[in-house]
Amino acid sequence: xxxxxxxxxxxxAMATALSVSFAAHAQDKGLIAIITPSHDNPFFKAExxxxxxxxxxxxxETLVLVHDDDPNKQSEMYDTAIARGANAIILDNAGADATxxxxxxxxxxxxxxxxxxxxxxxxxxxxxxxxxxxxxxxQLGAEKFVELMGEEGNYVELLxxxxxxxxxxxxxxxxxxxDQYPDLNMVAQQSANWSQTEAYGKxxxxxxxxxxxxGVISGNDTMAMGAWAALEAAGRTDVIVVGFxxxxxxxxxxxAGGIKATVLQPAYRQAQLAVEQADQYLTSGSTGxxxxxxxxxxxxxxxxxxxxxTFALSE
Amino acid sequence: MRDVFHLSAxxxxxxxxxxxxxxxxxxxxxxxxxxxxxxxxxxRMEAFAQENWxxxxxxxxxxxxxxxxxxRAALAENTDAAGEKFGxxxxxxxxxxxxxxxxxxxxxxxxxxxxxxxxxxxxxxxGAADVTVQLGPVIRGTALRxxxxxxxxxxxxxxxxxxxxxxxxxxxxxxSTPKPEGDVIGQDLRFEGVFTLRDPAMIxxxxxxxxxxG
Lengths: 315, 214
Prior knowledge:
The complex is a heterodimer.
Chain A: H1 2-29, E1 31-36, H2 42-57, E2 61-66, H3 71-83, E3 88-91, H4 100-108, E4 113-116, E5 128-132, H5 134-149, E6 153-159, H6 165-178, E7 184-191, H7 196-209, E8 215-218, H8 221-233, E9 240-242, H9 248-255, E10 262-264, H10 267-284, E11 292-295, E12 298-300, E13 308-309, E14 312-313
Parallel strand pairs in A: 1-2, 1-3, 3-4, 4-5, 5-11, 6-7, 6-8, 8-9
Antiparallel strand pairs in A: 10-12, 13-14
Chain B: H1 2-19, H2 41-64, E1 66-67, H3 68-77, H4 79-86, E2 98-111, E3 116-122, E4 131-137, H5 143-146, H6 159-176, E5 188-196, E6 203-212
Parallel strand pairs in B: 1-2, 4-6
Antiparallel strand pairs in B: 2-3, 2-5, 3-4, 5-6
Helix pairs in contact in B: 2-6, 3-4
Protein name (chain A): D-ribose ABC transporter substrate-binding protein
Domain Periplasmic binding protein (chain A): 32-283
Subcellular location (chain A): Cell envelope
């Protein structure tokens, strides 16, 4: 007992000492800007929180900004970060093409960018691009969807924002699996631009035109939530819905017997990893990694939903 | 990867020289196979897979080939150590190991009438299938792509192009292995191929060599 207590006390003392030393270093290590899409989507919030926490642990001040998927706004935020003399920028970007210019501008100003979640269409400008293995994840989601559908029936696909590479790659991962089953028939395929409210509206009208649908596969969780709400309102809780992201909202829906499955992107860890690579780059001049890095996704269903919390799976 | 750029650039120059005054749009120098301007991702990646199959892909597999029994023993002891010793994977965390293996066993399951045809092989002699040999034409996963040290995601435009490359390499595996016919259950199978380690008890192999008989 005494020993346990002593260890506890000494580790507490050490933790205190560590946090003091972080605070002392905070001024020295400089500023990290964290720019993401709107925190209305918990996925982006988890990224921002994960990055901010890790940056502060490593002794940086942070500047958290939101670009709302507007490339112009993103460009202004890059200028803000540059003007504020940020040492590094962590970015979940507002478009694969439109983002190339601001990242280049920061690079020219000596500020390295570390991208998470979404790629840009050029390499050699950002220092790191760490993205979920969306293709692998989409195939996992599609395999589960096919199994839930019993390999047959009419289904709907909700697509993400067209300017985002992730919308295309997930759709192609879904179809590379689903299209192998001739009895699965896609009756509608529409973009709801990653948005919950848009998905609700689209789902309502799709359902009116196609009352005989059996399943909905969605490019992300917020659209899956919107679709599920519309299905519930129409009394169609028999429809199988599968999402993508691994949000707490969808986790709760799975546990309550609503949405059937989703695919977890390790968003929280990904954001932390980007900050760690930024720190390593700033202190040693190299991340020791390739620029573009993929992180595998994990299928979430009723068997493991319990272990999911804020885009991370506990062991 | 860089020598591929140079080679393609050279081909492009040669093509212009041969055809005389033809207006050719500037290729994007950062794109793989830039000589093939205007092609779809799919066609470009198929060409890349074809160009590299015998010259680079098969040699990597031969150099890293480990007998399945030996690999199993090493994995049972320590996954990471086995990965470091025999495995291939891209840099960065959260990338699973890929292994090039050789082995043999008895075919105890066969699904040949599918776009995703496969054989279930018992390699341990316990009567249960422990290796799934993917025959295709639809082959799952990215084991072949991710096992190649000369293939770096950074050299590709985006995940879409990179996914097409995995599909194209799987297509080469399908095209270069024989399609078993008739009743193959109970026959012996020798195989070489690549798999991504997810569950050591159930290996999903992408074969590059198959020999049935005996």
